[in-house]
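Title: Request for sanity check on eEF1A lysine and N-terminal methyltransferase prediction

Description:
We are preparing a figure and want to confirm that the structure record we downloaded matches what your pipeline produces today. Could someone re-run it with the sequence below and paste the raw structure tokens into this thread? We only need the token string, no images.
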Amino acid sequence: MELLPRSPGEFGSARYWDRFFRQRGQRPFEWYGAFPELCPVLHKYVRPRDKVLVVGCGNSELSEQMYDVGMCQDIVNIDISAAVIRQMQERSTSTRPRMSYLLMDMLHMDFPDAHFQVVLDKGTLDALLTDEEEATLAKVDQMFAEISRVLQVGGRYLCVSLAQAHVLKKAVEYFSQEGWVVRVHQVASSGDKQQFVLPVFVYVMTKFRKIPGSAPQILEICPEEQDKPVRVESAEGLVAAVKDRQHYALVCSQISKTPCREQVSLDLCDKESRKPRYTLHVVDSPSVKPSRDNHFAIFIIPQGRETEWLFGTEEGRRQLAASASFGRLVTVALHREQHYEGMAGIQAELSGKVMELAPLGLPARQQVPFLSVGGDIGVRTVRHCDTSALSGEYVVEDVKGEGSCYFRRLIFLRNRNVVQSEARLLAPTPLQGQKKRRKDKKKPSPAEPPGAIDKSYLCCEHHKAMVAGLCLLGGPDALPGELAVLVVGLGGGSLPLFVHDYFSQACVAVVEIDPSMLEVATHWFGFSQDDRMRVHVSDGLDYVAELAAGAPAQYDAIMFDVDSKDLTVGMSCPPPAFVEKSFLQKVKTILKPEGVFVLNLVCRDTQLKESVLATLRDVFPLLYTRRIEGEVNEILFCQPGPECQRGPAELGARARALEAALRQPGRPWDSSYALADMLQAVQIL
């Protein structure tokens, strides 16, 4: 039986609808949205004494159900299909005497002006506005003009719609320009996962007298999980907000039916600010054999640990899901701008929402466990936030790591999942703790992190590898004597600080383009300058070029640890200009013959990476590489001549000798500084 039109234009044809309803018979046809789902929204805007007009009524049961439950009984239904009007008159005349059905075209209505308090449209606008051709838009304008004419001031036009972008945009722009208040409700779904149903929306357009001049538009959206409307600035913003909810519904439908081949990422936003509050990743483990108790679980990532490999990468989350032995694991990252009331509060807030992401086959009334590390949500304290003209918005925050360790981190918010700099915080000595308690006269909070920076500790694995590269320097002594080091890229200053403190005769020059970062390093990361450590606020490209134009061969070691501000390039460290051949030749010019140039390379673009390596080989005859396990970082050690080459045995011996020399009495040394291990995985390119 052919019930669909041959072309979208037939949706506006009386002949098509007559044929449709004759073929369909007495069975009610609901475009979308059953009465139980629509009732909570309709109840807010339809009063028992209202006179209601239903345009394009078809043989939907909506009017009958509104009548029967007493929501409203003075209802007039119109349609262009004579066949359906006859059906509905036969069905309701004797049982619903106050409700009428009239054969009428909504584009040319016979009702007097301001005759109704409510006009209800369920799918009619969607059926009419099938395209954006001039003729179609003219019909829609006529429809809106007639609805506006028959509505009283203060009356409501309720339009039930699937909210295709062009439909919603047309309605919002038309009525907001007329001075009406426009509010969009998302209708709560029935929860039936067996058949995907696009989310249904109700546009509520409330008529006001048009004010001469440019009155401000009032546009609002009410998501299904809340009653309080949220103000939206523009029609485009309202369309985008609806589109987000449609995308979420589509994702939920897809993953409820089939396992995720790729990890799905979703943001859940705060109801008030509309800023992201939770970031969810849905991870399926096909290898896990499902049982009643291991279908589905939620894992709350402790605050501040979302950047760790296990939680911040696809491979890490896959390993986490497999080790947790759940068929589907949803990881939840918490955002720094938000406040959370502990694990119980998060569970109460998320329990309903995450069930929309449950896999097919989850047993009914199955309790879904909420998991975390140590059973808590971690500690994050924002110490400082500001905006740099060069680096954009940034924050300095203290976070709790494993055990009782705390770390201070610098985060650029343009790339909020990457830790720009990190330092370990020292735990206070018992005496310091006693003095603080005497001064404050109160016990310190267990969540309050210590404040002093542990300058002896390198948090970043790539920094440890860069330090290990100093083993490549020539000379008979394991610990070089006078050492001239150039570091381009300051960050929090941990790398130059370590070289300065552990290589007691090293003179370190640091180049940093952003003066804000020097302030951050000084005030928040314990960085300081002296006669062996100087910072030059300058562009590293210009600084090196000026040095190369003067006296050559000035540095024993040159280290590049500088991030790119351009996120569109597949290389986040360094900026592309730093690995151009002409600039690398200048770097070689200021490097001593037996020196080492150490470069932190972070490049996800395979072709671009191969190009960079080829350029480096053209300039530096000897090139070693050290990949950092679990990270994208790759440390490149470049030397000016092949005579500098050392075999694995010699490198290991020099690394062990250097480590022994650096382990001096009274100086802290972390067991993770295994310089020989760092160089074991070095490859010659």
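Thanks, this matches our download. The two ends are 70 Å apart (CA to CA).
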